From TrEMBL, chain A:
SUPFAM superfamilies: EF-hand. One of its GO terms (biological process) is calcium ion homeostasis. PROSITE patterns: EF_HAND_1, EF_HAND_2. Residues 74-103, 105-140 form the EF-hand domain. This is CIB2. It comes from Acanthosepion pharaonis (Pharaoh cuttlefish).
Automatic annotation (TrEMBL), chain B:
One of its GO terms (molecular function) is mechanosensitive monoatomic ion channel activity. It is found in: Membrane. This is TMC. The chain crosses the membrane at residues 115-136, 209-228, 303-329, 357-377, 389-412, 499-522, 546-566, 601-624. One of its GO terms (cellular component) is plasma membrane. Residues 1-11 have a biased composition (Polar residues). Keywords: Membrane, Transmembrane, Transmembrane helix.
């Protein structure tokens, strides 16, 4: 960092290191990113209160190159914000990068992927969720007919109990078999 | 939202309504707790931090923390920090990944791994062969020949022959020097780069160093080192691919929806292209399904026609390979027989250069040109699109491997050509190779240089031009694309050259290392500046495991000729570390004979055919056992899948039952009230 200002206390570092998949340096690197989002407002000293209350608005978050191109960016911010507002505090910001880091375990990544795709937050990936996912992916360029075809096929493949939706178990069952998932659900810092 | 501390509502599946009786809510409660206990949903970080201070809870997946464990965690953190700092090209890989996605990045990771491999390879050879020999040359040293009284050793012959091995060259003009540099002849020939430079003696200066023994042991150990590196690499690949127990085509659309977005992408234009390609893919999957449907309804006549075409194409492929083989054989022969030292003076230098480089140019041209032909003719064969890619790939791999095999075979024919004089140099119709090992080393040296020149010119001249033309003329098909399989194959090919040639040119791995180093930056330039994003997203895992396999196969192909040469081909009498021995292998036999009796007995037993045969049988049995276990585990997976299905259905049924009972109870209550 170079400057003398203490961003985090030793206690905070320990707490963060215990609760995320980051080392001290990583946490500082993430903080640098966080600070850059809105340097005028975000203080360099991060007390516990500020880290858990000061929020950065979605429009700043979306400008980050890692998320700018991502069709699910809004959804990701929503999942990681604890009050569903899509604005993130530093804690939530750090949590997000922790999940996307390469040290995070497979199960954790899968559970967050599920949350991201579960638009209506009913713990099932229903037809609506699938339609929304496809719409995000294709930027509204698919016809209704094409989307329905794909949704039907996905349910045909993944829906084991013919309930018309994918449960977490079904989702995990397939996704944990994909060898590319880990390398793709990953954001380098 | 999905936090553990709150009781989250049950999925709203329309089965249970809130007005149901108490029994239902009890059961509902049970289901809810079941879901909660499964610990799927992690609370937010702030909540985790609070819990940590209250209960000392750690990461969602790790709970306990002892004193020792804390220490281990700290050490691990430190190591990770160091690894992060030391990881080379981290930024480059990130930039490329952001531009093209993880598939292309996997190529760069593979390239980086190859650089590590060659670095170790180079250090072994350089530290244990080149440095001792060069250092001893500078000092006054005495020599001795190991096992001088043994029947395998012919000192007098080799002394006589070594004196005849004189190079006539005049490196006066710059062009001569440059030409010699490119061909590895003239002043280059007796440098540490080639086999011929090394002495066949034990060097004594304070301590003794037996060059021949060091040479053979280091070479064998280098090969073992390569195997270990590859095994480590494919083991880590295997860990990933082990999840791939079910064929991916099973979940084609699922993968398309949930696994097509690469979270590593950061470049907006590439992301747009990626989304576009995704749309294309969805549409192509649609047409693919229709195509399969059409294929099912083929008439016998149409079916026979397809088979006929495929047979024809395969014959054509074989013909291509045959022509390639003949061309390589012909050019190698032409070069050795028509460029005798005394004929040099008659020709212009550039002619001589061209003729010298003829085999390398032929091989590179074949490798560059024939894959185009393959990709063109495979279209006629009417395969499914994804199979088409694999078939082109397999044919290209075959061509690459075959061209090396043909080269080795034609060189072998030249080396084994009889009659020979008592210095083991060909006479009459045979090429007069004073030092055939150096000659082979030169061939591989030239191939590596040619290989580098071609990839250099492709990246620096051809691709920018294509980009320019495609911009100016608005033809998008001209725009270069980053072809992952082709690039990885180039890499494997260069690596094979390194494996085949290192025995004859101990500094060849260094050249390959430099080549890879340059390639990394060239390819980065090409990926970031010249190449458009891939139309078809390339799956990282697919390439990783496939290319690890190809690398393994080519490694064993490279080991065969080297092993054969060490054991059976008589070395040159006039040069190199093995000039006094009948066979290169003899140095090992002599060393073992000098050992104490029991030790040499043990070694002799270990290398006896009876022992090796037993080992092979045991290995085969072990392999069989592993295969059996693998298939048993696959069966278990299938069973568990069924069980999962059944359990879900059971739960569903259970909810239905509960609902029914509740309704009945409610009805009863209602009727009683009435």
């Amino acid at each position: 960092m170079g400057n003398k200002v203490v961003t985090f206390t030793e206690d905070q570092f320990n707490a963060y290191q215990d609760c995320t998949y980051f080392t001290k340096k990583d946490i500082l690197r993430i903080f640098q990113r966080f600070h850059k989002l809105n340097p005028n407002v975000i203080p360099v000293e991060m007390s516990e209160v500020i880290a858990s209350t000061l929020k950065v608005s979605t429009c700043f978050l979306e400008e980050m190159p890692e998320f700018k191109a991502n069709p699910f960016n809004k959804r990701i911010f929503r999942v990681f914000s604890s009050d569903g507002s899509s604005h993130l505090t530093f804690n939530e910001f750090l949590d997000m990068f922790s999940v996307f880091s390469d040290a995070a375990p497979r199960e954790l990544k899968i559970s967050y992927a599920f949350k991201i795709y579960d638009f209506d937050e009913d713990k099932e990936l229903g037809r609506n969720d699938l339609h929304k996912t496809l719409r995000c992916l294709s930027r509204n360029e698919l016809t209704e007919e094409e989307m329905s075809f794909v949704v039907n096929k996905v349910l045909e493949e993944g829906d084991l109990d013919d309930k018309g939706s994918l449960s977490y178990m079904e989702f995990e069952h397939i996704i944990s078999r994909d060898p590319d998932f880990l390398s793709m659900f990953h954001i380098r810092i | 939202m999905f936090s553990n501390n709150k009781i989250s509502p049950l999925p709203n599946n329309g089965v249970v309504d809130d007005s149901s009786g108490s029994q239902v809510s009890q059961r509902r409660q049970a289901v809810v707790t079941v879901e909660q206990n499964s610990q799927i949903w992690t609370p937010h970080l702030s909540e985790r931090l609070r819990r940590r201070t209250e209960f000392g809870e750690l990461k969602p997946t790790k709970k306990s923390s002892g004193n020792l464990e804390q220490k281990i965690i700290q050490i691990r953190r430190f190591l990770r920090e160091v690894a992060f700092k030391l990881e080379p090209w981290r930024e480059s890989v990130k930039a490329i990944e952001g531009h093209h996605g993880s598939g292309v990045a996997s190529y760069f990771l593979f390239l980086r791994w190859s650089i590590y491999l060659n670095f170790g390879f180079f250090m072994l050879l350089f530290g244990l062969i080149v440095i001792p020999q060069v250092a001893f040359k500078k000092k006054n040293y005495t020599t001795a020949v190991l096992g001088i009284n043994s029947s395998y050793v012919h000192v007098n012959y080799s002394q006589h022959c070594s004196q005849q091995y004189i190079l006539n060259y005049s490196s006066t003009s710059v062009s001569e020097i440059l030409l010699d540099f490119l061909q590895g002849t003239g002043w280059m020939e007796k440098t540490p780069l080639f086999y011929g430079y090394y002495e066949g003696k034990e060097l004594n200066y304070d301590k003794s160093y037996i060059i021949p023994l060091a040479y053979i042991l280091v070479c064998i150990f280098s090969l073992i080192y390569s195997v270990i590196m590859m095994a480590k690499k494919s083991a880590s690949n295997f860990q990933d691919s082990i999840y791939d127990a079910t064929p991916s085509s099973h979940y084609q659309f699922f993968t398309l929806v949930f696994l097509s977005w690469d979270y590593t992408m950061t470049d907006e234009i590439s992301a747009k292209l990626k989304l576009k390609s995704l749309k294309k893919q969805i549409i192509s999957e649609l047409t693919d399904k229709q195509y399969r449907q059409k294929r099912k309804n083929l008439t016998t006549y149409q079916y026979a026609r397809i088979i006929f075409i495929r047979v024809l194409v395969n014959i054509f492929v074989l013909l291509c390979l045959g022509t390639g083989a003949y061309l390589i054989y012909f050019t190698t022969q032409f070069t050795t027989f028509h460029v005798k030292p005394d004929e040099f003076h008659g020709h212009h230098e550039s002619v001589r250069f061209l003729v010298e480089y003829l085999p390398s140019i032929t091989i590179s041209a074949l490798n560059g040109f024939i894959p185009f032909v393959f990709s063109f003719i495979t279209k006629v064969e009417d395969y499914l699109p994804q199979n088409q890619v694999i078939i082109i790939l397999i044919r290209t791999i075959l061509l690459r491997l075959a061209s090396l095999i043909f080269l080795v075979a034609s060189l072998y024919k030249e080396v084994m050509c009889t009659p020979k004089d008592n210095c083991n140099v060909g006479v009459a119709d045979c090429p007069p190779l004073r030092c055939w090992e150096t000659y082979i080393g030169q061939q591989f040296y030239k191939l590596v240089i040619m290989d580098f020149l071609i990839s250099f010119s492709l990246c620096v001249i051809v691709e920018p031009l294509r980009k320019l033309f495609s911009r100016c003329l608005k033809i998008s098909s001209l725009e270069p694309q980053f072809d992952v399989p082709k690039n990885v194959l180039d890499l494997v090919y260069t690596q094979s050259l390194s494996w085949l040639g290192f025995f004859f040119a101990p500094l060849l791995p260094c050249m390959v290392l430099l080549k890879f180093f340059g390639t990394f930056y060239l390819k980065k330039l090409s990926a970031l500046k010249w190449c458009a994003a891939l139309e078809k997203p390339y799956k990282a895992s697919k390439s990783q495991s496939l290319f690890a396999t190809v690398l393994m196969i080519s490694f064993f192909f490279c080991c065969l000729p080297i092993g054969y040469i060490i054991c059976y081909v008589p070395p040159s009498r006039s040069c190199g570390p093995f000039r006094v021995y009948n066979n290169m292998y003899d140095i090992l036999t002599i060393t073992v004979e000098l050992w104490p009796l029991t030790a040499s007995m043990i070694v002799r037993f270990l290398s006896s055919s009876a022992f090796i045969l037993t080992i092979i049988v045991i290995l085969i049995l072990f392999l069989y056992h592993c295969a059996q276990r693998g298939s048993a585990q696959n069966e278990t997976i299938k069973l568990l899948r069924k069980q999962l299905n059944a359990e879900r259905k059971e739960k569903f049924y259970f909810m239905m039952e509960a609902n029914n009972t509740a309704t009945i109870v409610a009805e009863n209550k209602a009727s009683r009230k009435q």
